[in-house]
Amino acid sequence: MTGYGLEDFIRDTGVSRETAERLATHLALLEAWSGRINLVGPGELEDYWRRHALDSQQLIALAPGARRWLDIGSGAGFPGLVIGICLAEGAVDLVESNPKKAAFLREAIRATGAKARVLEAKVEALGGAGAYDVVTARAFAPLNRLIASARPWLDQGALGLFPKGGAYGAELIAAGFPEAGGTAAGLTATATVSVSDPRGRILAIRRARNSEERA
Fold first, then answer.
1. pLDDT tens string 196-215
2. Which phi and psi (to 5°) does residue 135 adopt?
3. How many helices (H) and strands (E) does the chain have?
């Protein structure tokens, strides 16, 4: 998808031009701030619309009707801030413990009008507080550690949506699941092909049905 840009993103997602322009504001802020703090790797913003915007926005369709989102380790705003910009209804809580990155996220929320707020804390300090429909994270930790961080909300019925690259199968195995997904430790995992990278998958983690029946 070399040369993938704003118009391609609008075509593939169906978002309004106003929403896409708010994402363009996010991109401009990333370009302005990345010289001061470590938000994204060198050259990554050249593929913002596919690698970051499309990769993040696709999660919304996997949780139809979800209104309360929690994004762990939000950093530069992927996927949580992008979701907050694109959501028709609902809002996202962005968990970020780094003060400089939290400051960036607050400025990005102000400038883009994203439906989001920043929780400047380590995820462990939240203690599972808050009722959420969906928990997201990208590039925060390997799946086994990510599940441990998200487990308090997963056990309350939240859906976990975690974008992973081509090594997703090994991460599933390391977390105790079969390579293609399945059930482990009271949770089920399914894998959906990523629209931004056919080699990657969106891993959906949820409480297993028998666990729901016992709750």
1. 999 999 999 999 986 543 44
2. -115, 130
3. 9, 8
Q: Which of 205, 212, 186, 194 is CA-nearest to residue 56?
A: 194
Which pLDDT value is given to residue 42?
A: 75
Tell which CATH classification among 3.40.50.150, 3.40.190.290, 3.40.50.1010, 3.20.20.80 matches the domain 6-214: 3.40.50.150
The mean pLDDT value for 16-30 works out to 98
Instruction: For the chain, give percent helix, strand, coil, nearest 5.
Output: 45, 20, 40
In whole angstroms, give the CA distance from residue 170 to residue 42: 27
Query: What are the structure tokens assigned to 194, written together?
Result: 């990523």
The residue among 109, 121, 102, 169 whose CA lies nearest residue 142 is 169
pLDDT the model gives residue 43: 86
C-alpha to C-alpha distances, 157 to 23, 44, 128, 206, nearest whole angstrom: 30, 34, 12, 7
**Distance (Å, whole) CA 119 – CA 89:** 20
Count CB-CB contacts under 10 A for residue 64. 6
Taking CA 204 as the corner, what is the angle to CA 157 and CA 52, rounded to the nearest 5 degrees? 120
